[in-house]
Write a structure and sequence with these properties.
Elements (H helix, E strand, L loop, with lengths): L3 E5 L6 E3 L1 H14 L15 H12 L6 H15 L6 E3 L3 H8 L5 E6 L4 H8 L11 E2 L7 H16 L8 E5 L2 H10 L2 E5 L6 H5 L5 E3 L5 H5 L4
Helix pairs in contact: 1-3, 3-5, 6-7
Length: about 220
C-alpha cells in the first residue's frame, strides 16, 4: 500500500476562529496604544510573519519588537479561545481525523500561516494536536507553497515515509491552497468553509471541492 499524506490548513478548514485577528489587535493596543493596527492588512491565506511585519511597517513599530508582540498575542489568544461563540470546530473534521488515525498508511500534517505556538493554541481546545505531530508554520517569511513543501518534508522525516505526488493532498479553504497544489504538482481539496464560497473556489480549478466536510464518507472516498 502506498502512503497518503493529507496536508491541512487550519483557519477556515479545521476550525472557524474569529479570535485570531482580535487577539492581534488587542496585543498591538496593549503594547503600543494603537487601535485597529491590522485594519489595512489582509489576513486570509497569509502567513503570520508577513501579517505582523506589514502591520509593524504600517504603524511605524521597529521589527525588533516582534518577539515581544508574539508573546503577548499568544497569551491573549489562549484566553480568547475559550469564547465558544466565536470559535468552533468545523463539521466532519474530528470524524475524519479519528477515522483515519488507525490507518498506518494515512498521515496528517499541518501547513498553516499561523506561527506554531498560535496553531497549537487554536487546536488545543478540540484535542487536535495529537493528529498533527509536525507541520509547516508561519513563523518564517516564506511563500505559502514553501510552507506546504516544508510540511511535506517534515512529514517524510517524522513518519519515515515516501509520498508519491499523486498521494499528497493539500486541504484548504482559499485559492492560495489550490495554487500550492498546482505549484508543487500535488492534489488540492478545496472546502468552502472560509471566506470563499464554492463558486469562487471552483474558478481556481481544485482537484476536489466540497461545501464542507460534513459528509465524511464522500470525502474519504477520495483516498480509496
Amino acid at each position: 500500500m502506498q502512503n497518503i499524506l493529507m496536508v491541512w490548513d487550519l483557519d477556515g478548514t479545521l476550525i472557524f476562529c474569529l479570535e485570531g485577528r482580535r487577539a492581534m489587535e488587542l496585543a498591538f493596543y496593549q503594547l503600543y496604544g494603537i487601535r485597529n493596527a491590522f485594519e489595512k492588512v489582509k489576513m486570509a491565506g497569509r502567513l503570520d510573519a508577513f501579517i505582523v511585519r506589514e502591520a509593524f511597517k504600517e504603524n511605524g513599530i521597529p521589527e525588533e519588537e516582534i518577539d515581544s508582540f508574539l508573546d503577548t498575542y499568544c497569551r491573549i489568544l489562549e484566553e480568547f479561545m475559550q469564547n465558544a461563540d466565536k470559535v468552533w470546530l468545523l463539521p466532519g473534521v474530528k470524524e475524519i481525523l479519528r477515522n483515519t488515525s488507525s490507518d498506518s498508511t494515512i498521515h496528517h500534517v499541518l501547513a498553516t500561516g499561523n506561527i506554531e505556538r498560535g496553531a497549537r493554541i487554536k487546536l488545543k481546545p478540540y484535542d487536535l494536536n495529537q493528529y498533527f505531530p509536525v507541520g509547516g508554520f508561519g513563523d518564517q517569511e516564506l511563500e505559502r507553497w514553501q510552507i506546504v513543501n516544508l510540511a511535506i518534508k517534515r512529514a517524510q522525516e517524522y513518519y519515515g515515509a515516501v509520498y508519491q505526488k499523486e498521494n499528497i493532498y493539500v486541504i484548504g479553504d482559499t485559492p492560495r491552497d489550490i495554487e500550492c497544489g498546482k505549484i508543487l504538482g500535488i492534489k488540492s481539496i478545496a472546502v468552502a468553509t472560509g471566506p470563499y464560497d464554492e463558486e469562487k473556489l471552483r474558478m481556481h480549478s481544485p482537484d476536489y471541492l466540497f461545501p464542507n466536510l460534513e459528509k465524511t464518507e464522500a470525502f474519504l472516498k477520495i483516498f480509496k
